[in-house]
Amino acid sequence: MLVVVTSGSLAGQTIANRYDLLALLGRGGMGEVYRAHDRELDELVAFKVINPERASDPKALSYFRHEVKLARRVTHRNIARTFELGIDRGITYCTMELVIGETLAARLERGKLPVGEAAAIAYGLCEGLAAAHAAGVIHRDIKPGNVILALDGRPMLVDFGVAAIRASHSTVIAGTAGYMAPEQAHGDAPTPASDIYAVGVVLYEMLTGHKAFTGRTLEMLIAKQEIESLQLPEDGHTPREIASLIARATARDVTHRIADATEVASMLARWVGNHRAVTTTAPAGVFDLVEVIVLPPQGDDTRMHVAIGVHQALLDRLAKVPRLRVLPRTRVDKRVDAVVELRVTSALEVRVVRESGTLQLDLPLAAEDLRSIADAAAAAIVSAVEESRVLVDPQLAEATDLWLRGRAIIHRNITAVGPALELLERAYTLAPEDPRIAASLANVYSRMTYLHTDATDEMLARATELINSALRTGAMDADVHNAAGLLELNIGDAVVAARHFRTAIACAPYSAEAHDGLGRMLIEAGYLEDGMARLSDACAISPDITAAGWSIARMYALEGKWDECWRTVAEVSPTGGPRPVYDLRFALWRGDLEAVVQLRPQYMELVAPFQDMLAAGLFASLLEGGWLAWKDRLVAGVMEPTRNRRRTAFLCQMVAEIAGHVGDQFTCNAVITHAVDVGLFDLHWLDRCPLLRTACDTPEFRQARARVERRAQAILDALYGDHDSGESKAPTAAAPATVVG
Fold first, then answer.
1. For this structure, is 141 an active site residue?
2. How would residue 644 be classed by pLDDT, with cut points 50, 70 and 90?
3. Helix axes 478-491, 494-507, angle to 10 degrees
4. Average pLDDT score over residue span 114-138
5. What residue segments make up the domains of the chain, in order of their start?
6. Out of 141, 195, 530, 687, which one is annotated catalytic?
């Protein structure tokens, strides 16, 4: 979703200084839909950009505003909420609840549905439509593409607020021809019966596995005028009552059609029974939401005000737990994983009632301890519900074990892609729907395109495919956003990468990989204090993530703090990692050619960015005075087009350092400019690398630096907002930022 962006996409931009557009989810007749991060609420939303031709029509825009206001009144478990309609810099948008799952259209690509599952989906849609119609909202565009089968089993109707137009206000023809009611196609005002017609057509398609109407738009509309209603083929499996329901729901004459969604739902209820419309192909237990009810506190009224505060704080804590949903008591119509009871006595009794038993926790009740009480209660609740959800699928257990082993290898040594790839490919074969496994496998392919000179575009394409798949089912998973951030770095979009790392932290505040990714980006961008804080957090959370340690050592080296650098290297080196890469650069920055001589044999055998012609040219230029003989080939090598722009930028940095070492200002500036063209944001390197001193006073260098500084500020904006807010100091060339150990 986020990586393969067609021309004109807004992915990577921030709208209304609030919504970070992370990924293009799809396009439709009304506009484009993006996965977005809402900075104000710190959560993911669906962000729909209205087509300019519609948004430019004042009358249509007035309708949209009116209908969004109506749609916001519709609250139902089978309807994706609509939040707001806004305009920013000429872009008209609508924000909606982001529903994670697959569309019914995607599900139908695998064939028709069993009667019970089809009935359950249609039943859920009718339940939601009944609530919408009661609020005066008509959907007008019900079709498989606008039905998302959520990972918790619910069919969710999306696109309310944009597609809906009240019957009394509109004669605008809108909808999709194959599902549009005949009167709707004539421009008559839509009514609840128009939506019922579409539900009948969708139910027909679910049970037969093929569309009711095909062909060109005019052909489909004419066909609807020539038949009285849809007749379901007799197959011996579909009950006659359902066939009759479809015929009545799709009657050409509105007066003969079922006009009430509640009536359709009641007719479907007997076939739904206890069927849970599980529509995802994900292995059981991996994506299921943990659903709990947290009842309001009861008991001693004299201390109830404190208990109410704890209750609200507890709800806030649980809202941030991945894959856990708190349900209001009044909306529960099915079994949940746990019910939490709060009772005020001499203390606060927290009882977590599960099918497997009851856990009770007694906590002190004092206003000054409100936050710690809520934290303790939340931890107990999460622990209790997770204990009752042990994975028992042997294949899934094996896949999880392989995934953890592969991820651990990469944590310890980011260059050890071969062993990790084998384990993660096996894991992916066993559990291809697990977004964590897909993300980790994408992570390895991303690294391969950076580390290997023989890397192919197919590797990056494979990483892109895996990330897109993982985002469809794991949009709230930190591992997925960490891998997406790394991929965006490799294709040269640091701003979008930063937003993914930030989203990962929002999903999982203690994600070491997210802190590591942000920390390394911040340090390169010149924000040393902020970056160091992130990297320190990453090391504290997960000491086996060696990349954070190497970034800290690199920062100290560029600052000329060699004692701190060697101490950090000693801590990181025993666990593995790309030590020869850093050792070479450190030797160059110190001007220690003897160390370069000693490192040369290692590089002739190293499978890393330094291989073959490039490695030979670097060492010949450094040690044998062969710069003139190798210059053209080295420059041509780094200028060669590649989809991994971060790799290209890094190799340009290496060649620039050699050119600076020998005093070739022209070549130094040329390759630096190319590095900036492909996405370089390493302002710290530009300002502190001692090998660039001969070029730093030239106009070309200053121009390149100005571009990098703007990019560095954009990265900080993506993380914290306005870079002039005072929360972090913008980097300057005059003095180094303070480094906090």
1. yes
2. confident
3. 170
4. 88
5. 14-97, 101-272, 290-387, 389-509, 516-741
6. 141
